[in-house]
TrEMBL record:
The lineage of its organism: Bacteria, Pseudomonadati, Pseudomonadota, Gammaproteobacteria, Oceanospirillales. Residues 180-331 form the Glycosyl transferase family domain. GO terms for molecular function: glycosyltransferase activity. One of its GO terms (biological process) is carbohydrate derivative metabolic process. Keywords: Transferase. InterPro entries: Glyco_trans_1 (IPR001296), Glyco_trans_4-like_N (IPR028098). Transmembrane segments: none annotated. This is Glycosyltransferase involved in cell wall biosynthesis.
Length: 359
């Protein structure tokens, strides 16, 4: 079977990492084509397997992207086209002979439905699901629920996101020394947040919760993600209004796994999510995880993983963080929960079953 994944870009992010890892896992069984429409210069950061045929583009205008999609479909003649993010909208319009085609179509909804598609895309997506045999896949219970409300009458197929088990890089010792220098002593607990700095990821809430605790606990906070620049108004608001003592912005790093291995607690303070890959990676390392009730986090976090904030108040998140500091979950327990439910192998097997059953 030949499977073509279509993604808009390869910026550093959970969606992009997931697609590359799924393509790599799929390539052990199928011929896989990864079509990247824009921002292709970062493809090497994701270490796409050489078994995967990567088709790179630099298109920015919609018409150019649609022509790229049409040309790639004609050249590679896939059995399955698997779209991600905004690319279903472009793919449907570009593939004129939809009704005569024998291609199987799958679209993964990576976020709560109303955040993924605005009004125009919503109608095109609905038409695609209803009449063009495109099978929508939701990635968590919360995304599934939002999809059913947003696209009334459409029955999605739910497959939980998966991730590889991350490993240390050649720079681990360097990162370990860096953290040793910024920690007060060997007892200092390291809390880490991974994600671009913006209103959705809501790091301001996390920093405010952290500040409520740092007088009582020996802790530091790492924030790893893009957006550390003056032009980012959300970041500038954090700088202007928050106490940043013992808070360290790492910017965008390509060895985030090394920082995870050197940390004690992983925390997400997002307002909404699909099912965050960063959370699954933290679980694969065995970190105790603390999250707000944002999308798929509510499904993942249980007593074998960590603590869930009851709401989006600073006091609620700080209480959950304090509980994690006092009573961390054993690393092997968290890892076992990841291996049982959220590996990329588990995820791919479910997608593979779906590919086979589609008509």
């Amino acid at each position: 079977m030949k499977v073509m994944h279509i993604i808009n870009d390869l910026k550093i992010g959970g969606l992009q990492k997931f697609v590359c890892e799924l393509a790599r896992e799929s390539s052990a069984k199928h011929d896989v084509v990864l079509l990247v429409l824009n921002n292709s210069e970062k493809v090497n950061k994701y270490k796409v397997d050489n078994k995967v045929t990567v088709v790179l583009g630099s298109e920015k205008k919609y018409i150019s992207k649609m022509l790229k999609i049409r040309k790639a479909i004609k050249k590679h003649n896939p059995n399955v086209i698997h779209t991600h993010g905004l690319t279903l909208f472009l793919s449907v319009i570009s593939h004129f002979n939809f009704f005569q085609s024998s291609i199987k179509w799958v679209h993964t909804v990576h976020n709560v439905a109303e955040k993924e598609a605005g009004k125009l895309r919503r109608y095109i997506h609905w038409f695609s699901f209803k009449f063009l045999r495109v099978m929508p896949v939701t990635i968590s219970n919360e995304v599934d629920e939002s999809f059913r409300k947003y696209y009334k009458g459409i029955e999605p197929f739910k497959i939980n996101n998966g991730s590889i088990e991350v490993s240390k890089t050649s720079r681990f010792n360097e990162i370990e020394r860096y953290l040793k220098n910024i920690k007060r002593n060997i007892e200092t607990k390291v809390i880490i947040n991974v994600g671009r700095i913006d209103a959705q990821k809501n790091q301001k809430l996390l920093i405010e919760a952290f500040n409520e605790l740092k007088g009582s606990y020996n802790i530091i906070l790492l924030v790893a993600g893009s957006g550390v620049e003056k032009e980012n108004l959300f970041y500038q608001e954090i700088v202007d209004k928050c106490d940043l003592e013992n808070v360290y912005f790492l910017s965008e790093v390509d060895n985030v796994s090394d920082f995870l291995f050197c940390s004690d607690i992983f925390c997400l303070s997002s307002k909404f999510e699909g099912l965050p890959i960063a959370l699954l990676e933290a679980m694969s390392v065995g970190l105790t995880c603390v999250c707000t009730r944002a999308g798929g986090t509510s499904m993942v976090i249980n007593e074998r993983v960590g603590y869930l904030s009851k709401d989006f108040k600073v006091s609620s998140l700080s209480n959950s963080l304090a509980e994690a500091i006092r009573n961390p979950v054993e690393k092997e327990v968290v890892k076992s929960e990841f291996i049982k439910n959220y590996t990329m192998e588990v995820c791919f097997n479910k997608y593979d079953e779906l590919y086979e059953k589609l008509k």
